[in-house]
Design goal:
- By secondary structure, the chain is an alpha/beta fold.
- It has two domains: 139 residues, 3-Layer(aba) Sandwich (Cobalt-precorrin-4 Transmethylase, domain 1), CATH 3.40.1010; 107 residues, Tetrapyrrole methylase, C-terminal domain (Methyltransferase, Cobalt-precorrin-4 Transmethylase, Domain 2).
- The strands form two sheets. It has a five-stranded parallel beta sheet, with helices on both faces. A five-stranded mixed beta sheet has the order 6-7-10-8-9, sandwiched between helices.
């Protein structure tokens, strides 16, 4: 069974590439993780993309209950990795239950925020699906959140010939050093950069939430001067919409 794993960008419908639209048009059934009413507009956004580019009746959506992942912030590295592996396996099992009911020649699609290769589990989950049934994965790249962040702020993410360090909030405090150059942080639900104010208070930060969507918010400036505003803005966006997807870059 062919499985199209399609990067759809950071939220703006204009982020879709021609290759992504072509891959979407091949799909008979889009599988989406049902994360509850709070995040239902994420599914609605995917539906809107399909309505804009696909013929009515050419496809359908099937929502699959998302398994509980657990309190990642409270786990050490070994527990965290084991928990993620269990979550991948549970997700794969749920998707396989649906896929086994489809015709053998059906094409299944996953619409992935950003790019499937950067801090997203879909490729790994499809690999787990392949351990249970025969699948033929096809990956389509998308605009990443950090690309959208750089464009929204009109910046280059590195000095001339310099490095870019991409990491997660979970690793930031232990890994960061001024010599890393520009540091891009994803998956940071707790804005761990606030713990670096004493060490890097004069660093410059570029932050963005819900990039490309009507609820987009941008902030930039000296870390010690804007961090309180970023914290408050992030909390407000989350309260208004039930979720927030943010990313930031900072450099000394």
């Amino acid at each position: 069974m062919k499985v199209n794993i399609i990067g759809i960008g950071a939220g703006n419908p204009a982020h879709l590439s021609l290759e992504a639209i072509e891959a979407m048009r091949e799909v008979d059934v889009f599988l989406v993780a049902d994360k509850g009413e709070v995040k239902s507009d994420l599914v609605a956004s995917r539906r809107a993309l399909c309505e804009a580019h696909l013929d009515p009746g050419s496809h359908r959506f099937v929502a699959v209950a998302d398994p509980v992942r657990g309190p990642d912030a409270e786990r050490d590295k070994e527990q965290y990795e084991a928990g993620v592996a269990d979550w991948h396996a549970a997700r794969a099992k749920g998707y396989v239950e649906v896929m086994r009911e489809l015709p053998a020649d059906a094409v299944v699609g996953f619409l992935v925020w950003g790019d499937p290769a950067f801090y997203d589990s879909t490729i790994r989950i499809v690999e787990r699906i392949g351990e249970l049934i025969d699948v033929e994965p096809h990956v389509v790249p998308g605009i990443t959140a950090f690309q959208a962040l750089a464009a929204a702020h009109g910046i280059v993410l590195h000095e001339v010939g310099g490095p870019v360090h991409i990491t997660t909030g979970r690793r930031l405090v232990d890994q960061w050093h001024p010599d890393l150059g520009m540091t891009v942080v994803m998956l940071d639900g707790h804005l761990k950069v606030q713990q670096l104010v004493q060490r890097a208070g004069r660093a410059r930060i570029w932050w963005g939430a819900n990039l490309g969507l009507p609820s987009q918010q941008l902030r930039s400036g000296v870390l010690s001067e804007v961090i309180d505003d970023i914290i408050a803005t992030r909390a407000r966006v989350r309260a208004e919409h039930g979720w927030v997807m943010d990313v930031y870059a900072f450099s000394m």
